[in-house]
């Protein structure tokens, strides 16, 4: 995977609200820390080579958001509408993202590391070379997606819904779930551990496995 291309020595301390200084809602080479951004509606904001640290975005609507070479650290994006977003070389570390909506988005080299994504919507999305690491994706809606080189590592997938999405080449074996809503159509080529295989056997075939 490609990491965000950011030279921190050249970042300027700034406010997210500086984005309104540009007619096309553009931010670049900024470091933004400790802000509270509430109920902002911006169509097609563009942010490049920027680091956000401990910034809270509360119920914001950033339709068609474009992020390139951006890092979020300890941020809260819960219940934000980020539909039709384009994310390229973007990392989220220790972020709270409950109920975030990424429907119809494009991810390329995106990392979610130790993030809380419960109840998120990631539907009709295209995900390429993206990683979910040590993150919670409970009750996530993950339908009608196209996946290429996507990694799930040590994640909680309980009650996740994955419909009309081919999982060939995906590895769930290091992840956890008690139940998951998934289609037989999609699991061909999916790698699972023994407990997960037992659940899927019961789910699709009604097979009872004894030990």
TrEMBL record:
Protein name, entry field: Pentapeptide repeat-containing protein
Organism lineage: Bacteria, Bacillati, Bacillota, Bacilli, Lactobacillales
Residues spanning the signal sequence: none
Pfam families for the chain: Pentapeptide_4 (PF13599)
InterPro entries, per database record: 5peptide_repeat (IPR001646), PA_immunity-related (IPR052949)
């Amino acid at each position: 995977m490609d990491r965000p291309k950011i030279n921190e020595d050249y970042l300027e301390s700034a406010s997210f609200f500086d984005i309104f200084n540009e007619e096309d809602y553009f931010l670049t080479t900024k470091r933004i820390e400790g802000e509270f951004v509430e109920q902002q509606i911006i169509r097609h904001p563009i942010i490049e080579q920027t680091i956000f640290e401990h910034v809270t975005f509360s119920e914001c609507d950033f339709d068609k958001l474009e992020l390139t070479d951006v890092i979020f650290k300890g941020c809260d994006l819960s219940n934000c509408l980020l539909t039709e977003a384009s994310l390229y070389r973007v990392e989220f570390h220790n972020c709270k993202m409950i109920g975030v909506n990424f429907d119809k988005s494009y991810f390329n080299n995106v990392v979610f590391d130790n993030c809380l994504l419960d109840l998120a919507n990631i539907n009709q999305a295209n995900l390429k070379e993206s990683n979910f690491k040590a993150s919670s994706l409970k009750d996530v809606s993950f339908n009608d997606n196209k996946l290429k080189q996507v990694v799930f590592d040590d994640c909680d997938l309980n009650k996740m819904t994955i419909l009309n999405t081919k999982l060939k080449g995906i590895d769930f074996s290091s992840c956890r779930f008690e139940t998951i809503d998934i289609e037989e159509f999609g699991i061909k080529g999916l790698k699972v551990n023994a407990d997960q295989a037992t659940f899927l056997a019961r789910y699709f075939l009604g097979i009872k496995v004894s030990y």
